[in-house]
TrEMBL record:
4-aspartylphosphate: residues bearing it: 73
Name assigned to this protein: Response regulatory domain-containing protein
A family per Pfam: Response_reg
Keywords: Phosphoprotein, Two-component regulatory system
Biological process, per Gene Ontology: phosphorelay signal transduction system
Organism of this sequence: Phenylobacterium soli
Record has Phosphoprotein as a keyword: yes
InterPro entries recorded: CheY-like_superfamily, Sig_transdc_resp-reg_receiver
Residues passing through the membrane, by range: none
Residues making up the signal peptide according to the UniProt record: none
SUPFAM superfamilies the UniProt entry points to: CheY-like (SSF52172)
Length: 154
């Protein structure tokens, strides 16, 4: 497939295969492809990804288990990522303090600093770049980032 498109595939190679601490990350996105890509990146770095296809599903997941970090898509049907963040922060339990990172392709309507002002712990633009994603997740969780190398397949 890569030869037909003229694109080369890249594989993620992690120099330090074990992170300082494996993180539990809730990824909320209405696009199953985005969920799969981010899950592959996180697991390559030794972290556990839990997927939610909507804000309602994310709130339900957070009421049942604790997460180190939440990756939140901003534009979703029914409930935006901003609305989900507000509901998380309004909760009485410990999940209200979970770091939530804004994840969006819409970089024209808001600057990254505006997401921080809204209460997000970080910002990652789409399409997701491996280094940016891992840096944001580990920074938000307060753990050291493992070294990484990208190598071309084939």
């Amino acid at each position: 497939m890569a030869a037909a498109t003229g694109r080369r595939e890249c594989r993620v190679s992690v120099s330090n295969s074990k992170p300082e601490r494996a993180l539990s990350v809730l990824h909320v996105d209405d696009d199953p492809v985005n969920l799969r890509v981010v899950e592959e990146i996180l697991t390559a770095f030794g972290h556990r990804a839990v997927k939610a296809l909507s804000g309602v599903e994310a709130l339900d997941q957070m009421s049942r288990q604790a997460f180190d970090v939440v990756l939140m898509d901003i534009h979703m049907p029914e409930m935006s990522g901003i609305e989900v963040l507000k509901r998380i922060r309004e909760r009485a339990g410990p999940e209200r303090d979970t770091p939530v990172i804004a994840l969006t392709a819409d970089i024209l309507s808001r600057e990254p600093a505006e997401y921080l002002a809204l209460g997000f712990s970080g910002f990652v633009p789409k399409p997701v770049m491996v280094q940016g994603l891992i840096a944001a997740v580990t920074r938000a969780a307060g753990v050291a980032q493992p070294a990484l190398r990208l190598r071309r397949a084939g």
